[in-house]
Design a protein that fits this description.
2 strands, two-stranded antiparallel sheet, disordered C terminus, 23 helices
């Protein structure tokens, strides 16, 4: 315990670590604010939306639905009246926009009073969004029944006999999951607040912070020439390494919980309280989740599994760190693998032949909000494995391999030495032999002064902002029949 305390003290006594934590929190909070602002500018003001939702939430659900539908009809008539008024009388087709209500003096007074009080365009968007949300809450059990009916229809199609036993079992399991949702009743809740949390992906930032922790924890003794002394005895060979790994795991887990906790506190302060006890299907972006769980239970398991993935990736980088004598190679290798993983996860669809590359990579481990939103499988040469099991298996394999590498390499102190070196001087002579002043200054900035690394960090930050759940971006807006039919067509 004393050795563990000393390792913690050595790490947290470094001002760079405190600065790194503060920068991480500040950047993530800034990304949350920018994302929320853009989301509002592209849709509607969430304060007005929440106020309207709270007003209709005081009514019985069916009465609220009827009231919203009537309001949507009236707003549509108001818009039609505006278009009718804006068309000159000389235009022949003006009569197409005419409605008998336009001759009603009372209607004109109500319209004028409404547009003097509210922004008609914003009210149309607000009520359309509310209508969609309330309608899906009302129709949830119909959606579940439609999905189950389509499963039964799928089993009667000729293509069913062509499926492997593993895929047939997958659809049977999915049918069973939806059968357990027959008693689930989604409720009206503050879904915008929770969706703003889903829209921010702090995992890339935390992955970079994990790299920083590895360099700080294991590099501290190397820079102070303490490794040789610490590893002289058997106690130093085992306990020191174990405590360093434990410090890495605890510190990264604590900082990750801090970041996610601040996200939730900031969201609830700015956008209202989130009801954690409601069914997870009450959130539009999670409407199709086939699991029976509350919102709090679903989000808790997402965060815990994401922290597990962060620890796994950090220890993987720690293994790379101990593999090479030149630490730059470990950084290059890890960032390259992570970049390729992000590319594969974004570009490969679930119906592609190489779908296993989408989920069998590093970034997929961090995207738990996507992996555990649906019950997915991967089929390769008639071998079927569910994505959650694959997630755990990959984490276990990487953790075991990384820990084995870290312990063996620290105990033996034998690392790979590459004779190949990146000789930027020869690179300059080969490609920049005749440089003008502008090109030479660019070369100094991006090659000699490691400007490419700055660009890489900026790209990671932008990736944290732009990589969002597709359901949040599209705001789901799909009906049950269309989704079920598309699912059947997809597997066929």
């Amino acid at each position: 315990m004393k050795l563990l305390y000393k390792e913690f003290s050595k790490l947290w006594n470094r001002p760079a670590l405190m600065l790194g934590v503060l920068l991480l929190v500040a950047i993530n909070s800034g990304l949350w604010f920018v994302s929320t602002s853009i989301q509002q500018s592209n849709t509607y003001n969430y304060h007005n939306y929440n106020a309207l939702q709270s007003y209709y939430d005081t009514m019985p659900i069916q009465d609220a639905m009827d009231s919203i539908n009537n309001m949507v009809v009236n707003l549509d008539l108001y818009q039609q009246y505006e278009r009718y008024q804006s068309i000159p009388d000389a235009i022949p087709n003006k009569v197409e926009y005419f409605d008998d209500a336009f001759n009603d003096y009372e209607f004109i007074q109500i319209y004028q009073s409404y547009v003097d009080t509210y922004d008609l365009h914003d009210q149309v968007k607000l009520h359309a969004a509310l209508q969609t949300y309330f309608q899906q809450i009302v129709d949830y059990q119909q959606y579940v029944n439609n999905v189950k009916d389509n499963f039964q229809q799928l089993k009667t199609l000729p293509v069913w006999s062509l499926y492997s036993k593993g895929k047939q079992q997958y659809y049977d399991d999915l049918d069973l999951l939806y059968s357990q949702l027959k008693d689930v009743t989604p409720v009206i809740t503050n879904h915008l607040g929770f969706e703003s949390v889903l829209s921010i992906n702090a995992t890339l930032l935390l992955s970079l912070f994990g790299m920083f922790l590895v360099l700080s924890i294991f590099g501290l003794d190397e820079t102070t020439k303490m490794d040789d002394l610490l590893l002289m005895t058997e106690k130093g060979r085992s306990r020191t390494t174990f405590n360093k790994v434990l410090v890495l795991v605890l510190t990264l887990s604590g900082v990750a919980l801090l970041v996610y906790g601040l996200e939730m506190v900031l969201t609830q302060l700015m956008q209202g309280e989130i009801s954690w006890g409601v069914p997870v299907q009450s959130i539009p972006a999670l409407y199709t989740v086939p699991f029976q769980a509350t919102l709090g239970q679903w989000y808790l398991q997402i965060v815990l599994k994401r922290i597990l993935a962060l620890v796994t990736l950090s220890l993987l980088f720690g293994a790379f760190y101990h593999l090479f004598s030149n630490k730059r190679y470990s950084i290059y290798l890890f960032i390259t693998l992570l970049g390729l993983s992000v590319f594969a996860f974004i570009m490969i669809t679930d119906t592609a032949l190489l779908v296993w590359l989408k989920y069998l990579n590093l970034f997929a481990l961090l995207s738990t909000h996507v992996l555990f939103r649906q019950h997915r499988i991967i089929e390769l040469f008639s071998f079927v494995i569910s994505v959650p099991i694959l997630f755990l298996a990959v984490n276990v394999v990487i953790l075991a391999g990384a820990l084995f590498t870290i312990f063996t390499k620290r105990l033996t102190q034998k690392r790979f030495v590459f004779k190949f070196k990146l000789r930027f001087v020869k690179f300059k002579e080969l490609f920049f032999e005749h440089l003008n002043l502008f090109r030479f200054e660019s070369y100094k900035l991006f090659v000699m002064q490691k400007g490419w690394a700055i660009l890489l960090i900026v790209a990671s930050l932008l990736g944290s902002f732009f990589i969002k759940p597709s359901a949040v971006i599209k705001c789901w807006r799909a009906n049950a029949n269309l989704q079920s039919i598309m699912m059947i067509m997809e597997v066929c």
